[in-house]
Amino acid sequence: MLFPVLCSIEAEQSDEQLYQEISKANVICIVYSVNNKKSIEKVTSHWIPLINDRTDKDSRVPLILVGNKSDLVEHSSMETILPIMNQYSEIETCVECSAKNLKNISELFYYAQKAVLHPTGPLYCPEEKEMKPSCIKALTRIFKISDLDNDGVLNDNELNFFQRTCFNMPLAPQALEDVKNVVRRNMTDGVKDNGLTLKGFLFLHTLFIQRGRHETTWTVLRRFGYDDDLELTQEYLFPLLKIPPDCTTELNHNAYLFLQSVFDKHDKDRDCALSPDELKDLFKVFPYMPWGPDVNNTVCTNEQGWITYQGYLSQWTLTTYLDVQRCLEYLGYLGYSIIHEQESQAAAITVTRNKRIDLQKKQTQRSVFRCNVLGAQGSGKSGFLQAFLGRNVTRQKKIRDDHKSYYAISTTYVYGQEKYLLLHEVLPVFEVLSEADLACDVVCLVYDISNPRSFEYCAKAYKKYFMDSKTPCMMIAAKSDLHEVRQHYSLSPLDFCRRHKLHPPQQFSCNSADAPSKDIYTKLTTMAMYPHMTQTDLKNSTFWLRASVGATVFAVLGFAMYKALLKQR
């Protein structure tokens, strides 16, 4: 910590040396003589303007006024100094001391250190006698994270959890009551149902600051990830996470439990879906709205278009898989590491083993599988993605172009195991398919049976990119409710599949009154899980039947179990 001591008597140093010292300082002590009126006047006429001219307005260095030679006078200079302190918010405090007899010298260094570690400037505006907006914003987020049941008050259990989190010890019952009584005496709406409201919480921190106990508020802020500028630190939001090549990222069991609790506390009407207002309330702890309207077309929603419980978990799963750094950031905003008492939110992530090892061992521990969907323009790829989310053509027509998503994710069940299948619609630019377009666990080649030129794209894509790869492929005969025409290709789709030992084209249509069947998606997940299986194995009807029956039974059981949990609450 650097703190130059600027004396109101001219020092023997050049202006350049002085400016360099000011620029390096963490705190500056301005020394005046308590028995010299001109010395006091120079604090405001010379030193403070000089310092402010050499420092950025948004990051002013804290100042300590030091009244020296207190041994020479009987009176205090504080009556003269207080108006100066009120005029300049960057002044932290004033200490009168004596260099001759060492009176208050240790206190001077204590306050200088405190001004750096626990500055007043970012927290409080002395002119307005209230906390600054950025401080209120940070403390509001902390309150919402600590309000574990989202009822708008911190009950005794929540207050004690907060106390242990920040100060490593709970409050005694009487101490809790004393805190609430202080709030009750000073404001009418600070305590509700014997719990501390947001207004009461903010009042307490204002009181701490006004009484010079800045360290209490700073301890809370830093525990929840804030830096000296009241911004969440990069170290907090983006903890180190090493991901080797050919490995993927998934949420672990504890992370899903945490996200379930977040969903549950915001699903006020217990309808297993988040209304727009409930979703907005959930993301109030974020500095921006992380989910756009495309998310509603990426995951399952109810008839009103609200994201369901399953859809909510699916979106988190997708973010973790596609952009784990973004997921870490989001979990940081929600306070995962604090609520689950982990070192960082990296503890929420499982890094899967290398895919080559899965192929060698002929088994996988992964829960998320990616299926890239390719096909010519107008072949029905978007419809195939939306059908996975249970939407028929009628519901798909209501989707606005600017709300379209090129991803769809939901759960399937293979042999009783719940897995996530992530569908990605690849843009039909045949010549410029990137590694990302090709990197997946299973490929879906979609053609329109009513368009004679649709299959050609699938055949060429397969022969160029997938024929010699180990990635399993499935051909989808889309729009099977329409009249099938002969494809303008040297081989029919069925003969092409036979020649290349692929499963026969799967008939698919979403033009029905009911929600489309999920059987085909179960097949895709099974192929992704067991890429080592031969096409003969995959064609076996018993194999598909067992997987599909498991999907139906466990999907029903899974939702029923969640409903039962809600009823218990």
TrEMBL record:
EF-hand domain location: 254-289
Topological category with respect to the lipid bilayer: Single-pass type IV membrane protein
Organism: Astyanax mexicanus (Blind cave fish)
Domain annotation Miro: ranges: 1-118, 366-530
Lineage, broadest ranks: Eukaryota, Metazoa, Chordata, Craniata, Vertebrata
GO molecular function: calcium ion binding; GTP binding; GTPase activity
Reactions catalysed: GTP + H2O = GDP + phosphate + H(+); ATP + H2O = ADP + phosphate + H(+); UTP + H2O = UDP + phosphate + H(+)
Protein name: Ras homolog family member T1a
One GO term describing the cellular component: mitochondrial outer membrane
Example of a GO biological process term: mitochondrion organization
